[in-house]
Amino acid sequence: MDSQYPFNFTKMELSEKGLQKITSKVFYIAVLVFLYPLLTNTWMVTGDGPCHLYNAKMLKDIALNIDKAFYLDFYVVNFKLTPNLWDHVLMGFFQIFFSPSISEKLFFGTYILTFSFGARYLCNNISPNSDWAVSSVLLFIFHHLMMKGFLNYTFSFAASFWVIGYFIKHINDLKNWKTAVKLSLLLLINYFMHPIGFIFAMAGMAFITIVYVFSILIKPNAREILLDFLKKLSPLVLIVIPSILLYVSFMMDSSFSKPLDWNTLINLDSLMTYAEGERPYSILAGKLAIFILIIGLINRMKNGPVIHIADGMLLLSLFFVFLFHANLINDSMMGGDRLKFLPHICILIWMSSLRFFWWFKAIIHIFSLVLIFKFAFLRYPAYAEASAWVEDYMECEQLIKPKTKVLTLNYDYNGTTADGRLIAPNNWTFMHGTSYLGAIKPLILSDNYQAHMHWFPINWKDQKFNFYNATGKDGISFEDRPPGAVFTTYAEKTGKTAIEYVLVIGKNDDHNAHPNTIEIDSQLVAKYSVLCTSKSGRSVLYGLKK
Q: Within 13 A of 377's CA, how many CA atoms are on the CB side?
């Protein structure tokens, strides 16, 4: 590949060699920075993440015939080959050997390493010695949707880096059956993570192929080279067929979403996780990508080459801007929120192909590192407080018997510390935060939102068992603000036994006069008694009266 786009790295100045030597070592330091919260906290709390861990445990238990009859009395296994399967398989596998907390850490650790080394692999296959450019891509390891708990979506990008990097490296070797099989398997794995990551990989390969063809057409002997390349490329049709067929079958059931605010695309709000003070630095990261685009185009016109294989990533950036603008996105798993930072990532990967002076590369690298450390400084205390929020209600966990049902009434989706500060002002991080209970022991939990969505592997056996239906009233449910639920009639509506436990979190005096709270309190007084109150008083566990 390098011969197609000559850039004589053997004649680099000593300063450029020194830069590569330094940045290759700093890369490992940056990776450790992202791993730090996993090493220092009990839980890595994300919005939907606990529910993923819970469902992964159920899937594992059912597969191993552990409490299978208990689970299948409420749920069925969805055997459709849909996306969003990956994290359930990986977390379920880890939970065979480790505790839920360790399994969650291993999952996020695997993601961080896959993303980091995947970005490095892709950039260095675009242009050798590009570690200086990788640090800016690493800024996107933690982002808003990851902290919402969109774990398969998040992991799918890490995988797509490997797919595109592998394709670039072996673009002239696809007739080798081992190479073809590996690429096909990578695409299949990418599909089972999330449709957006799969589209990222497929479209990336397509645009890189287009750019590569154009690079041939400008050569004197274009016809001969092009025919030879097309022969080498022909196996690609067979390589992509399995994953394409699965993707098409999934999208046939999809609808389209409403357009979103363009300012969030430009300002990169999607890089904010949930800590206070992140917004200015998220905007800075967005401006960095725009700056690189402008300076990079000027650099390309001045220093060449006319076309580089990395220009496929630039076309990919424009492709995702078009998808966002044209609203060609699906309302469920392909929504516009999931497209917001993709153009920025593509531009920063494209940057690795540019012929900047070594000192300019060093400035970009240092600026990116400063942002990485600044985000860590802002975010990690909040991540620690989020873990402590889980530990607060976990004080009552031992009083919950296995093979029972738990209704969570959470008044505090943003999370509040013991001294009254909001933990996650920018995200509903704790919406499904109590699902960790079900990862520890066999339980049926109210906030298992996954069970009524057809693209997840565990679904309700009958919608009447669905807590949203069985405890809702006049369109109000336990997920409203404040929560509302009629739960003393659950047994009558479902034919099951009564809900054994009600866990109330974050309720304070401001909620007491609300009609939802009054109705809930009257049911608790009539049918339940207090079993446990956490030391902070934020979590109260009620048990069914005998």
A: 8
Q: Which amino acid is at 458?
A: I
Q: Is 82 exposed, middle or buried (0-12, 13-18, 19+ CB in 10 A)?
A: buried
Local confidence band at 428 (pLDDT 50, 70, 90 cut-offs): confident
Residues 6+ apart with CB under 8 A from 23: 131, 132, 134, 135, 365
Q: Is the model more confident about 403 or about 213?
A: 403
278, 272 contact by CB (below 8 A)? yes
Answer yes or no: is pLDDT of 225 > 80.
Answer: no
- pTM score, two decimals? 0.89
Quick: pLDDT tens for 414-423: 888 878 888 8
Helix, strand, coil share of the chain (percent; to 5): 60, 5, 30
Q: How far apart are CA 237 and CA 449, in angstroms?
A: 38
For the beta carbon of residue 65, count every other beta carbon within 10 angstroms. Answer: 8
Q: Could you read off the pLDDT of 48-98 as tens digits, one per residue?
A: 999 999 999 999 999 999 999 999 999 999 988 888 899 999 999 999 999
Q: What mean pLDDT is predicted for residues 460-476?
A: 83
pLDDT at position 325, please? 52
Instruction: Collapse the DSSP code of 500 into the 3-class scheme (helix H, G, I; strand E, B; otherwise coil) and give the result.
Output: coil
Q: Could you tell me if 409 and 487 are in contact, meaning their C-beta atoms sit under 8 angstroms apart?
A: no
- Which residue matches tokens 């369109």? 475
Q: Which pLDDT does position 3 carry in this prediction?
A: 44
Residue 371: CB atoms within 10 Å: 20
Give the residue, 521 or 320, on which the prediction is more confident: 521
Determine the Cα angle at 442 with ends 441 and 446, to 5°.
105
* CA atoms of 450 and 331, how far apart (whole Å): 16
What is the secondary structure of 277-330 as a DSSP string? T-HHHHHHHHHHHHHHHHHHHHHHHHH--S--TTHHHHHHHHHHHHHHHHT--B
**Which backbone phi and psi does 345 adopt, to 5 degrees?**
-60, -45
Please give the DSSP secondary-structure letter assigned to residue 499: P
In angstroms, how far apart are the furthest CA atoms of the chain? 88
Q: Which residue has the higher pLDDT, 96 or 250?
A: 96
What is the per-residue pLDDT across 485-518, written as a single tens digit (0 to 9) for each? 899 999 999 899 999 999 999 898 888 899 999 9
DSSP 410-473: ES-TT-B-TTS-BS-TTS-TTTTGGGHHHHHS-EEETT-GGGG-TTSSEEESSGGG-HHHHH-B
Which residue, chain included where needed, has tokens 């902290």? 147
Q: Where are the domains of the chain?
A: 21-381, 387-544
Q: Which residues face 444 on adjacent strands?
A: 405
Q: How far apart are CA 34 and CA 182, in angstroms?
A: 29
Residue 31 CA to residue 118 CA, distance in Å, equals: 12
Residue 117 pLDDT > 90, yes or no?
yes
